[in-house]
């Protein structure tokens, strides 16, 4: 009986194994893995409509419902910001090409969801677990527009000093591979190529954010209105989380000689300092500056999610107080006011100046704000403070915040100012 049943079902079993081979037979080496999944990885091309030439390229992979492709947001940013001037196409490893429509984005995690009307292969599976550190992984994509490539590397944990979750991939991620999948041995997506620091140091977006993007998206193409609304909501939620995190903990301070100032606020900020004095210069200069390392890319002319500040301690024992004050006035050129943006994306700064008192110090203040034209409720702000003490010592402080609500600009600025104090040793 067993032999009869086995004989009867043999052709059916053989058929099923043949049609589902890629999904059922695990890769035994890199060549097998490449062969199994190469038709699920595509090049994403952004085409300028008038010239019909490529203005940018990246990579993507099939995921979710049939016809859907995930890539990095920065790959298709021109399409998102100027859909009348650009269009997106996919190019398969076999040379097949097709038009893409933008469905949704996650600008905070640099992801975008695109859709094709073509009949495409089954999507890649997205892993639900994070691999063990040291696990062998495989990055796929189209580097330098030279064809589909697979790169072996290892997973080396999550980045510790990062505002946003990033996976450390020890392997080469080259230009053009952005948005491509990083697979485990079973062909599951572990992460998405997003950036490189060179020398085999790559960074990945964890795959769970791709799952969240798929789960929160419709199947219809986005309109400009729906896209701006989604981006604004994402930035609102992100800046609120950042502000709450900063203000819920200890707002750290440091000292510059006789002044207490805000210090390294979080481990995802990079801080450094130095002292500068030319032998012929009558003014001694000590500075301390910090800035966030994980800006959010919105377009080629605008990034956001920025926190920067700098403290400059200036002192002299050779200048008369009036001459020293005149030198301070000449330095009031807002050295950190270097944010991206054009007249199409942000308004002009509106500024207000005055004097405030903090911990016994009288400080001259300049506070400037600008709004995002297409993203209501999102602002950039700049705060500049100067305090002159006893005619021979001064503190100049600059705070820059980009991509925050009006309420959180105020909360962060007030807390920042509240940490300034003149506290000479032994006083």
How would you sum up this structure in a few lines?
The chain is an alpha+beta fold and 427 residues long. The chain has helices at residues 2-19, 21-24, 30-37, 77-81, 207-215, 224-248, 321-330, 406-418; strands at 41-48, 53-62, 68-71, 86-92, 97-106, 111-115, 136-141, 149-158, 167-170, 181-183, 189-198, 201-206, 253-256, 259-262, 269-276, 284-292, 296-299, 302-304, 306-315, 350-358, 361-371, 379-389, 393-404, 421-422. It is elongated and about 75 Å long.
Number of strands: 24
Low-confidence stretches: 1-24
The dominant shape is elongated
Helices, by number, come to 8
> Structural class of the helix and strand makeup?
alpha+beta
Spatial arrangement of strands, main beta sheet: 15-16-19-23-22-21-20
Helix percent band: 10-25%
Strand content: 35-45%
